[in-house]
Amino acid sequence: MAVPDRLVPLLAQFDFARQRLTDRMSGPVMDSGNGTDVEVGPMTDAEYLWEPVPDCWSVRRRTDGPGPRATVLTGVGGWGRDATPPPHPTPPPFTTIAWRLSHLSELLALRADHTNGSHSLTRDDYRISGDAASAVAAFESAAGSWRKALLSVDDAALDTVGYSTYPHGSDPEDLFLETVWWVNQELLHHGAEVALLRDLHRLHRRDA
């Protein structure tokens, strides 16, 4: 199926942001932004779980229970992500790389399922990663599933309200083209947050 013209720039933006984040987390080099390669090592478990300020939200072993101001650990498996039913805490808790990356990967995987999959997965079905390597692999898998979903749509789908039935967002009320745009901005801003936290962790270790 040919990619609809309106989807082409959004797909290119997604591919760029996905590759840049993957390189930033995995190395051995990343694009500095001007085409210059900068050496970067793979993200460690210490970085992934680093809590730079008190009372962070993160991912935690289920046996340890939720973190400060959280009431539940979402997901399935031995690890879960700090959360609470609405209304959420104010001000919002600061979140670790682990929290942000698992959130991003979950939304990619679930939106893919609610676009061209079973239309049944929920947060309770998503397996949370407790280590960096598994989390990066989960992100790549989820991003690949979302890209596959994008390649399955035509112009009519882009103009369909509720083409994605993802239950944790406004997808059922939005044109699918708007959902695609929203996913890109989620990838861009969470990818930037992960990159910044990696830089801060490197400087924190140097000054410790």
CATH class of the domain at 8-48 and 97-116 and 126-207: Mainly Alpha
Distance between the termini: 54 Å
Largest beta-sheet characterization? 3 strands, antiparallel
Count, helices: 6
Please tally the β strands and state the result.
5
Which class do the helix and strand fractions yield?
mainly alpha
Portion of residues in beta strands equals: 5-15%
Q: What's the structural blueprint in terms of helices and strands?
A:
Layout lengths: L7 H19 L2 E3 L5 E3 L5 H5 L9 E3 L10 E3 L4 E5 L13 H20 L15 H19 L4 H4 L17 H32 L1
Antiparallel strand pairs: 1-2, 3-5, 4-5
Helix pairs in contact: 1-4, 1-6, 3-4, 3-6
Your description of this structure?
The chain has a domain at 8-48 and 97-116 and 126-207: Four Helix Bundle (Hemerythrin (Met), subunit A) (Up-down Bundle), CATH 1.20.120. The chain is globular and about 55 Å long. Helix 1 runs antiparallel to helix 4 and helix 1 (8-26) packs parallel to helix 6. The chain is 48% helix and 8% strand. By secondary structure, it is mainly alpha-helical. The strands form 2 sheets. It has a 3-stranded antiparallel β-sheet with strand order 3-5-4. The protein has helices at 8-26, 45-49, 97-116, 132-150, 155-158, 176-207; strands at residues 29-31, 37-39, 59-61, 72-74, 79-83.
